Automatic annotation (TrEMBL):
<protein>
    <submittedName>
        <fullName>Carbon-nitrogen hydrolase</fullName>
    </submittedName>
</protein>
<dbReference type="InterPro" id="IPR050345">
    <property type="entry name" value="Aliph_Amidase/BUP"/>
</dbReference>
<dbReference type="GO" id="GO:0050126">
    <property type="term" value="F:N-carbamoylputrescine amidase activity"/>
</dbReference>
<keyword id="KW-0378">Hydrolase</keyword>
<dbReference type="GO" id="GO:0033388">
    <property type="term" value="P:putrescine biosynthetic process from arginine"/>
</dbReference>
<feature type="domain" description="CN hydrolase">
    <location>
        <begin position="7"/>
        <end position="267"/>
    </location>
</feature>
<dbReference type="InterPro" id="IPR003010">
    <property type="entry name" value="C-N_Hydrolase"/>
</dbReference>
<dbReference type="InterPro" id="IPR036526">
    <property type="entry name" value="C-N_Hydrolase_sf"/>
</dbReference>
<dbReference type="Pfam" id="PF00795">
    <property type="entry name" value="CN_hydrolase"/>
</dbReference>
Amino acid sequence: MSSPANLTVALVQQSNTDNAAQNMAKSIAAIRDAASQGAQLVVLQELHRSLYFCQTEDVDVFDLAETIPGPSSDTLGQLAKELSIVIVASLFEKRATGLYHNTAVVLEKDGTIAGKYRKMHIPDDPGFYEKFYFTPGDLGFAPIQTSVGKLGVLVCWDQWFPEAARLMAMAGAELLIYPTAIGWDPRDDKGEQTRQKDAWVISQRAHAVANGVPVISCNRVGHESDPSGQSEGIQFWGNSFIAGPQGELLAEANNTDEQLLIVELDQKRSENVRRIWPYLRDRRIDHYQDLTKIYRD
């Protein structure tokens, strides 16, 4: 399946409430807006149906999970078919009772499921208690073939690991896509907030550079309270962006507003960049064996 020479991509940066139906309606409205402006691929943020529920550990939250295929993937599949676009959505997957994943599903423009990716790296930090909810993925780092190209879909915490991006690129991914939910502790001072956000942007732009492919990073925005009242919640910092294969910023959202970013990518640029920066050619795989160790003692 050949990829289009020029691909118009969009990402939806939105704020959420505890009303799943309203959140989904907001996502759908933004997808329609993106399609009306020519988008062929639309990316939604991590867990776009709900609040970011991992601030606390609560067994009742498992009621939010759903199967794939299931209600949300069916709805988005019908929308993808109606609009003739590809959609990347992030869902709380119920694989079986007691077995749940943080899963990105890709809906093809004929409405079918092109593939899915289960988040591999699962964090466990104050305010981000994801290990309570999500079993680490078991599908590996496998790009998903679609009518608009081979998509290297990863999720949030995965974005800090160069190994994940590299393995996707080595398997032929033409784009790296990161649905995300990341924000500040409101108690952090401005200096610390700036350092965290800048590190997040730098890391993902570096994946674009190191692998010679564009990166789409879609984050949520707005403040979400801690249901337990033990902290001041999370201020999601937005700043969603689309970068080219040299890490150049093609579009960037702010850290306060819901925004729709739309960019036309020249897919030939990756080929040209990889010719002048042939990192894959010069890798010394004969000396990388220690990368399979947790640490070199």
